[in-house]
Specification:
2 copies of one chain form a homodimer. Chain A is α+β, with helices and mostly antiparallel strands. Chain A has 14 helices and 11 strands. In chain A, the strands form 2 sheets. A 6-stranded mixed beta sheet of chain A has the order 7-9-6-10-8-11. In chain A, helix 2 packs parallel to helix 5, helix 4 runs parallel beside helix 5 and helix 10 runs antiparallel to helix 14. The termini of chain A are far apart.
C-alpha cells in the first residue's frame, strides 16, 4: 500500500503485517462451520445442530505475564495452548462444548515467524479439542510495547443443551470435590514468579531440581511433582492442561449413569479459595484438605522464595489442582478413575458444607470429616 | 486473601482488584439475557427469540494505540465507546444485530477509578445500541506495561436471520458505494499520529485550527470538518461513531421496500482501499472518487505532517468515511437521506465495477463514470 513507508517510520509495517496474514491463512486451513470468508469483517456461523434448546456460553481470558517468560526464553509455540486452556476450560465449567475461538494478539513489532508460532499454537490446541479458530486480531503497538513484548487474549463460544447447563445450583451438602492435577503453574502467578526470578537472580537454564536443592534444602527437593530433569525455564513454560474434552466425556458418562454433577471450577487466578466457592450454591461452601494431593515442586519453590506459606500459595497458584468437579458421593470413584490417568492425578480434595460452617469466604481448609 | 501482601510486592494488588470488581458489579446492573451469575466462569445465554434460522456473527478488535493518547491526556471515559464501535460495526457489516459484548482490559497497575471509567464507557456504548456487556477480564501486568498504560480488546456476538446475512455475494457491477461520515480518526492511525506529535513537539492543548494555520498555511485551515474550537487532544480523542443501530434500521427499511443491499464495509485499518473491496464479490472491485466527500482537518493535518499525500492518507486513516454501504442505484437516495443526518454526512463516493477494470487490488480512485 502507498502509505507503507510513512507508516513504517512510525513503527507500523503494513506490508509485513499483510505477509503474516498470508502465512496465517495458509496455516489455518479452517473450517467446517464458517459461512463467511476469511476476508469478512466478522465470522458468520450457524448454530451447531443437535441441540433442542441450545444455550450459548462465552468467556474471555488472557495468559497474564507468562508472555514475558516466553519473550525471555524466546519460546512462542506453547503460549497459544495456555490461552485456549484458560478460555475453553471456563466454558466447560458450565457443561458447554467449546465450539469457536477468536484471539487478540498485541505485539510491539510484527515478527512473522513469532506470530505464526503463537497463533499456530492456538490453532493446534483448538483442533485438539474440536474447537475452531474462526477469527482474530493482530495489533502492532510500536512505542507502547517493547519490540519483543506481546499480549494475548482469547474469546471462546460454546454450546450446551439448556437442561444440561451446570451452574452450581444442583450442589448439595455432602457432595465431594474431586481435584484434577494441573501441569505446572498454567497461566497464573507469573508476575510473582518474575519478581522472584529478578530479585534472586535465578538462572532459567538451571535444572529445577538443583535450584530446589539449593534453596529449599536436600530433604525437600525430591517431593512433589514436576522436578525431573527439566530446567527452571522449561518448568515455568510447561503447557497448560486442557481439560475440556475429557471432562465433557466424563460428564456424558455420569449423565448416562444417572449420577449428579453439581458444579465445576477452573482453578485460575485466586487459586482454590478464589474459585471453588463459585462452583457451589451461594448458601454452601467447601472444606478442602490440602494434604490430599501433592503440591508441584515449581509452585512450592517459587511460593516459598516469595515468602508464602502453603495457604498463601494455594490462593495465588493452582498449587497442583487445575480443575475441580463437585459431584454426589456415588460418582466420586468414577470421576477419579476416568480423569486421573489423562492428567496425572485426581483426588478427593474436599467436601461441600453449609456456608455457615465455613464463614463468609465459603472456603476453609482442614481434614475432611 | 492471605497472599495479598506477598503478591502486592510483585505489583499485583489482589484486594484492590476485588474492589474494582465490586465497583463494576454495582455499575453494571445487567442483564435481561444472562442465565449465569456474574460470579460464573462464563456467561450463559439463550439464543434470542424471533429467528427462524439464526446465524451467529462474531468479531474481535482493539483500539490500537489510541490508549496511549488517553493516558497522556488522562481521559478514560471515551475509549470504551471506541472499542464497542470497532467490534459492533464489524458485526453489522454482515447484517447482524450486536447482542453480547465481552471486554479484555490489560493494565500496568490497577487504578479503580480509571478501570471503572473505561469499562463504564464500554457499558454505556453497549446500552446505547441494545447490546449487553456480559463478561470481561481485567488483567494486571506489572513490570511488563507501564503503570498507567493499558490495552483494550473487545469481542462481540450478534445474530442475523440466515436469509438476511450480508456477505458481498449479492453485489453487482453498477452498484453505488455510499460513504457515511466518520467522527475524527476513530481508532486507526494513532501510532503514526503519536510519532508526528513527538517529532514535531505538538502541544495537545493547542487549538486544532491554530495548529492547522501554523502548519498548513491560512488558506487550508478552514477547510474540511472537525476544526471548531477543539484542542488537538480533543480532536484526537473524539469518540467513534457507532453506526450499528441506524444502519440496521436502514437495512430493515430497504428490505421492506424490496431494495437490495449487497455489502457493507467498516472503514478501519487500511482505510478505504483496504476495506471497500471486502464488501463486494471477489470478481468485482470499486472505483472511488476522493473529491466526493470532505476530508476532516485532523486527518489532513496529521497525514500531511507525516509526509503523506491524499491517497496515502486514505489508505491509513478512515479519511472521513467510517462506514460504507454498497447498494443498488435505486436505493442510494434513501440511504443518504436516512444516514446523513445522524452521522454528519453521507455521500455517493464510488461505483462497483468488474475487478478486471481496477486491477488486483480491486480498488482504484478516479471520477465516477
Amino acid at each position: 500500500m502507498a502509505s507503507t513507508t510513512a507508516y513504517a517510520e512510525a513503527g507500523v509495517d503494513v506490508a509485513r503485517s499483510e505477509a503474516v496474514v498470508e502465512r496465517l491463512r495458509e496455516r489455518l486451513t479452517g473450517s467446517g462451520d464458517l459461512l463467511g470468508s476469511l476476508g469478512g469483517f466478522g465470522a458468520a456461523l450457524p448454530i451447531p445442530s443437535g441441540y433442542r434448546e441450545p444455550v450459548i456460553v462465552t468467556a474471555t481470558d488472557g495468559v497474564g505475564t507468562k508472555t514475558e517468560l516466553c519473550r525471555r526464553l524466546d519460546r512462542h509455540d506453547t503460549i497459544g495452548r495456555d490461552l485456549v486452556a484458560m478460555c475453553a476450560d471456563d466454558i466447560v465449567c458450565h457443561g458447554a462444548t467449546p465450539a469457536w475461538f477468536l484471539d487478540y494478539l498485541a505485539v510491539g513489532r510484527v515478527d512473522a515467524a513469532r506470530i505464526v508460532s503463537i497463533v499456530g499454537g492456538i490453532d493446534g490446541a483448538c483442533r485438539e479439542i474440536g474447537c475452531e479458530l474462526v477469527g482474530g486480531e493482530t495489533a502492532e503497538h510500536p512505542g507502547v510495547m517493547g519490540p519483543d513484548a506481546f499480549d494475548l487474549a482469547g474469546f471462546c463460544i460454546g454450546f450446551v443443551e439448556r437442561s444440561a447447563l451446570i451452574d452450581g445450583q444442583r450442589t448439595e451438602p455432602g457432595d465431594i470435590v474431586i481435584g484434577i492435577a494441573s501441569s505446572g503453574l498454567h497461566a497464573n502467578g507469573y508476575s510473582l514468579v518474575r519478581s522472584v526470578i529478578d530479585r534472586e537472580r535465578i538462572d532459567l537454564a538451571m535444572p529445577l531440581s538443583e535450584l530446589a536443592r539449593d534453596r529449599l534444602g536436600d530433604a525437600d527437593a525430591g517431593n512433589g511433582t514436576g522436578a525431573g530433569d527439566v530446567t527452571v525455564g522449561q518448568a515455568l513454560l510447561e503447557p497448560t492442561h486442557i481439560y475440556a474434552a475429557a471432562v465433557l466425556r466424563e460428564l456424558a458418562a455420569l449423565a448416562d449413569m444417572g449420577l449428579r454433577v453439581g458444579g465445576l471450577a477452573h482453578i485460575t487466578g485466586g487459586g482454590s479459595p478464589g474459585n471453588l466457592p463459585r462452583a457451589v450454591r451461594p448458601d454452601l461452601g467447601v472444606i478442602v484438605d490440602p494434604g490430599s494431593w501433592p503440591e508441584p515442586l515449581v509452585c512450592r519453590l517459587f511460593g516459598t522464595l516469595a515468602g508464602m506459606d502453603g495457604a498463601q500459595r494455594r490462593s495465588t497458584f493452582n498449587a497442583g489442582i487445575g480443575m475441580a468437579l463437585v459431584v454426589e458421593p456415588q460418582a466420586a470413584r468414577h470421576v477419579i478413575d476416568a480423569l486421573a490417568q489423562p492428567f496425572g492425578g485426581a483426588w478427593e480434595i474436599g467436601r461441600v458444607v453449609p456456608a455457615s460452617a465455613v464463614g463468609s469466604s465459603r472456603y476453609a481448609e482442614g481434614a475432611i470429616g
